[in-house]
């Protein structure tokens, strides 16, 4: 488990349950940027979804805090039915006002460090097909897209974690 990672002006740490409102707000701001016709109302209660992610004993939610403000989030765990050495990145968001400032890169590096420390060998994620900016970010971090099926709204990507 990663300890708080501190660099000048930044801290990467585990999100506290008391920060739920900050998490939900950052998620909403980030998500709004990649739906060209507006965020779909699919019935998901994001407050409850994030509450679950924050309290799961088998998952982690990391955040990057800059100048006292949460500006990045990453939520991951190993879902049931997949190999124990695989981890899934369920949510990864950077506040749009902090794009292109190294927030995502630093947060991603902290995730990879934790996954390697936990003995993970691969990571997977699903990214919205319209979110080209995120797909480009993941490719730069070494993620490889898997073939998409017809009608898929998300693209699966895979990262083989560097060996130690």
TrEMBL record:
CDD domains: NAT_SF (cd04301). Keywords: Acyltransferase, Transferase. The keyword Oxidoreductase does not apply. Residues 10-162 form the N-acetyltransferase domain. InterPro entries: Acyl_CoA_acyltransferase, Bact_Acetyltransf, GNAT_dom. It comes from the Bacteria. This is GNAT family N-acetyltransferase.
